[in-house]
Amino acid sequence: GAVVSQHPSxxxxxxxTSVKIECRSLDFQATTMFWYRxxxxxxxxxxxxxxxxxxxxYEQGVEKDKFLINHASLTLSTLTVTSAHPEDSSFYICxxxxxxxxxxxxxxxxxxxxxx
Amino acid sequence: xxxxxxxxxxxxxxxxxxNITCSHNNIATNDYITWYQQFPSQGPRFIIQGYKTKVxxxxxxxxxxxxxxxxxxxxxxxxxxxxxxxYCLVGDHSGGYQxxxxxxxxxxxxxx
Lengths: 116, 112
Description:
Chain A is an all-beta fold. Helices cover about 0% and strands about 55% of the residues of chain A. Chain B is an all-beta fold.
């Protein structure tokens, strides 16, 4: 149980284009989801907290107009990287917290974004 | 948010027991301690969680002293496949899941 999927697992795009990453909780509902970014050989950095039906809360230094988050249902959150640039190339990981069991977050497998 | 401190790296031979200690001196009363394992290019995987004393599951044990200012993840008889980064997280989840901050983690290298 507690499986989280991400799609796509990897994506390569040209500079200036937008990329959407999906995060789904497959066997549970999640009121809260998180989005992280991880650069090579570094730890995970929290980008934003996504709550179903409300606006995401972004961490300091994360541009909300560049990283659009939509948590439209209890099983799906999406992260859209708008006008991507090479410096946005990174490993993006989402996590989900089961509704009604709020003490653990379960992570997706991650999405490798490469911007040319 | 409680800050955690872990050793940057550890080496161990196959078959040995490995203990990774995490310091969280300013842990709050309602904070839980959770450990995750991460392989390269994968999302972290939940290992174990505890609040106090000892917790054991099929893959690890978690020891938490009475003052809760530290915790130790114990991996019995490690194998090469246990080579990974291990993260200790501390957070208050009593009133709904609150965001947590990832520390540097401990990179465990298992040697044949």
